[in-house]
């Protein structure tokens, strides 16, 4: 297997909001042609980590390296557009500052939404809405696609389709993908690398390399753990109510660091 190409390298990232230590010594490498999925409980720092990658916030300490001139496509969690503001899909796509009609049509076609070009953005179903958002993120032919909970507001069948679509986009374009997901059981089959974040990186690796572990239940609850049959959480520590490490490794820096793994293609 060829050596993976790094797109982003985060080294020993710490983020403090006032006294809230949201990210603690986080190391993360994103590769070309690889889907990395960030999982973790609410408030674990997932969006903060994504915002670091996007350059929207600077870490309190640590270094961020991006491949020079890296083109990044971003799909936010949710767009709130007032219904009284008339907006077609076409006009929405143009907000990505790409006016080329052919490019816009191709981006929509790539997400199987080519027929929606002249529809009102307000009349789209949950799944159609997410596809249009994805098309917008694809417009600038990103080398890294960043997706914040891409299947939010989509029914279960639509969720499976969207994850499949993301996997096929990665395959077709060879881009790197970083996504946040809460749909542990669904995302497992369409990701290469899972990073479990709870302020620090609890564990990471190929989904199939992990199996049931009692400590996972501690983090996600019995239901979450049960729904993720493939996922094995190599926890060797416990968390207090703030997500801080309290056992085995009293200091987060002693908790397992990110494991560098190659993507399966
Ligand atoms: N700009 C900010 N200023 C102060 N605190 C912030 C800021 N951004 C995030 N936080 C806090 O940092 C913590 C982590 O937030 P973040 O949104 O990164 O978590 P998350 O894992 O994405 O959560 P969720 O799954 O609920 O979306 C939260 O306690 C949040 O309130």
TrEMBL record:
Compositionally biased intervals (Basic and acidic residues): 238-265
InterPro entries according to UniProt: AAA+_ATPase, ABC_transporter-like_ATP-bd, Metal_Ion_Import_ABC, P-loop_NTPase
GO molecular function: ATP binding; ATP hydrolysis activity
A GO BP annotation: zinc ion transport
Pfam families associated with the record: ABC_tran (PF00005)
Renumbered residue ranges of the record's region Disordered: 236-265
Residue ranges occupied by any ABC transporter domain in the UniProt entry: 8-223
UniProt keyword annotation of Methyltransferase present: no
Gene3D superfamilies: P-loop containing nucleotide triphosphate hydrolases
Keyword field: ATP-binding, Cell inner membrane, Cell membrane, Ion transport, Membrane, Nucleotide-binding, Translocase, Transport, Zinc, Zinc transport
Name by which UniProt lists this protein: Zinc transport system ATP-binding protein
Annotated organism of origin: Neptunomonas antarctica
């Amino acid at each position: 297997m060829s050596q993976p190409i790094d797109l982003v390298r985060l080294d020993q990232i710490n983020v403090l909001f006032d006294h809230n230590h949201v990210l603690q010594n986080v190391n993360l490498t994103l590769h070309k042609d690889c889907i990395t999925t960030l999982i973790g409980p609410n408030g674990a720092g997932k969006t903060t980590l994504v915002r670091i990658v996007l350059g929207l916030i600077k870490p309190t300490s640590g270094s961020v390296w991006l491949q020079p001139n890296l083109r990044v496509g971003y799909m936010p969690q949710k767009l709130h557009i007032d219904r009284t503001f008339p907006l077609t899909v076409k006009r929405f796509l143009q907000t990505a500052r790409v006016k080329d009609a052919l490019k816009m049509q191709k981006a929509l076609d790539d997400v199987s939404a080519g027929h929606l070009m002249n529809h009102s953005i307000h009349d789209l179903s949950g799944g159609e809405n997410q596809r249009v958002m994805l098309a917008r993120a694809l417009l600038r032919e990103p080398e890294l696609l960043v997706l914040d909970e891409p299947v939010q507001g989509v029914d279960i069948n639509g969720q499976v389709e969207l994850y499949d679509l993301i996997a096929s986009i990665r395959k077709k374009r060879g881009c790197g993908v970083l996504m946040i997901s809460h749909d542990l059981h669904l995302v497992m089959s369409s990701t290469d690398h899972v990073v479990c974040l709870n302020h620090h990186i609890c564990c990471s690796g190929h989904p199939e390399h992990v199996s049931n572990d009692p400590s996972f239940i501690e983090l996600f609850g019995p239901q979450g753990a049960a729904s993720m049959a493939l996922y094995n959480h190599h926890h060797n520590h416990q968390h207090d109510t703030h997500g801080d490490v309290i056992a085995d490794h009293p200091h987060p820096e002693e908790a397992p660091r990110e494991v560098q793994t190659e993507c399966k293609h």
